[in-house]
Design brief:
Elements (H helix, E strand, L loop, with lengths): L5 H9 L29 H14 L3 H15 L10
Helix pairs in contact: 2-3
Length: 85
Amino acid sequence: MKTISAQEFDERFDRGEDISEYLDWENARSGGEQFGAAELDLPLRLLGTLDREAGKLGVTRQQLVQRWLEERLKERGAAGQDAAQ
């Protein structure tokens, strides 16, 4: 995925140009998705490791943990299932 400034992105969008090469389609979400908070206490060494991995991927710690949880649940066939099920 290529990167440009937010201003350049907006200008290209406003001109009607194709901006798809600047979007992270792999992590795109529906605008209607609702979120809830989940607090998680982790050892500091693990937080440091998460931060380094997130830095390598250019994402936040929260995005990394969410991505990994989604991947793991998908592997188990549980991704996207309602918590009440």
